[in-house]
Design goal:
The chain has 350 residues and is an alpha/beta fold. Helix content is 38%, strand content 14%. A seven-stranded parallel β-sheet has the order 8-7-6-9-10-11-12, sandwiched between helices. Strands 2-1-3-4-5 form a five-stranded parallel β-sheet. Helix 1 links the parallel strand 1 and strand 2. Belongs to the D-isomer specific 2-hydroxyacid dehydrogenase family.
């Protein structure tokens, strides 16, 4: 019998998909470092000592644990055994992992965006409603327990509120999450969809979201949309600068459910205070867990605590997808949700 592939399981035990894990554990030899071994200094020492020998995959099933070693970068990744072919992690974002460095070493990185797209899209619908209906004003007035504030919001906030229907929703990044947002916003609110991405979707995909309009130029999208949603991964630089915000149409609305580091938050405050933008909805923030104080206090900004993808359903999907990605690549030669496949120099043998 051929020896089994070995999988380094970093983080706590799985919580939900016990039947899938039973299959997974029967297919592979599982190595699970202790909590102490996951701290960066000890993790680095263990890799240098080859404490776990050769292994072929890294499995991180839950985003709350398994990241104690910090950033996966050019210091850490080269210490991995040359046998490693895939890392599959819970979570949609991967700004903590240098996927280009993984690719340089022949390692496919897989994320869990497909498992969180439903939850993130639902939160985005809430933020769309918030920025069109000015719900921050109403919510704060109701929770103030001040009858004058309540009456003021009851009478006057409707004068600033609009229905989303027939307005144009501009989406930056029409990947798994962005496309699910487009589907829901078009179906539920009757919004017109426009998008900017590096690669245009097929006519069939565009037709399924109301014949979405593609903008190869980001400035064109910003100037055309009534509300812009950022749904693209962080690529190492700020995307939404003061110059970009000034390209929005007057009175436009802005939503970020991607990464806080994509946004110059001082610039966002500036255009809100100027009245160039009418409202913003933010699930993510540049300096988490600290929220920009002026944005948090702004009467036309709805802020959340990075919970867009945060449902039990998402966590169940993260776990399962991480296991299925490893099974797919090691047993069948193809991962389900590779992030850096286009960066891999060549298809390495297992």
């Amino acid at each position: 019998m051929l020896p089994k592939f070995r999988v380094l399981h970093i983080g706590d035990n799985i919580k939900y998909n016990h039947d899938v894990y039973a299959r997974f554990a029967s297919e592979f030899e599982i190595i699970q470092p202790s909590a102490e071994e996951r701290e960066r200094e000890e993790f680095v020492r263990a890799l240098k000592e080859r404490r776990w020998g050769d292994f072929h995959a890294i499995f991180r099933p839950f985003w709350n644990t398994g990241g104690e070693m910090g950033r996966w970068d050019s210091e850490l990744i080269p210490l991995l055994p040359k046998s490693v072919k895939v890392m599959a992690s819970a979570g949609a974002g991967y700004d903590w992992a240098d996927v280009d460095v993984f690719a340089k070493h022949g390692i496919t990185y897989c994320n869990g965006a497909a498992a969180s797209s439903e939850s993130v899209a639902d939160m985005t619908l809430f933020l769309i409603l918030s920025v069109f209906r000015n719900l921050t004003w109403s919510h704060r007035a109701a929770t103030s327990l001040n009858p004058q504030s309540f009456t003021d919001a009851h009478k006057n906030s409707p004068l600033t509120a609009r229905n989303p229907r027939s307005h144009t929703l501009g989406i930056i990044g029409l990947g798994q999450i962005g496309y699910t947002i487009a589907q829901k916003a078009h179906a539920a609110f009757g919004m017109q969809i426009a998008y900017h991405d590096l690669i245009r979707k097929s006519p069939e995909q565009e037709s399924r979201v109301g014949n979405a309009t593609y903008y190869a130029d980001l400035a064109g999208l910003l100037g055309a949309a009534d509300c812009v949603v950022v749904a693209t991964p962080f690529a190492g630089q700020t995307l939404m600068t003061l110059e970009r915000f000034r390209q929005f149409k007057k009175g436009g609305r802005f939503i970020n459910i991607a990464r806080g580091s994509l946004v110059d938050e001082e610039a966002l405050v500036t255009v809100l205070d100027e009245g160039h933008l009418s409202a913003a909805g933010l699930d993510v923030h540049a300096n988490e867990p600290f929220v920009h104080p002026r944005l948090a206090a702004h009467p036309r900004v709805m802020v959340m605590a990075h919970n867009a993808g945060g449902t039990v359903d998402t966590h169940i999907g993260f776990e399962r997808l991480a296991m299925e990605n490893i099974e797919g690549l090691l047993l069948r030669g193809k991962a389900l949700t590779p992030v850096n496949a286009h960066l891999l120099p060549s298809k390495s043998s297992l």
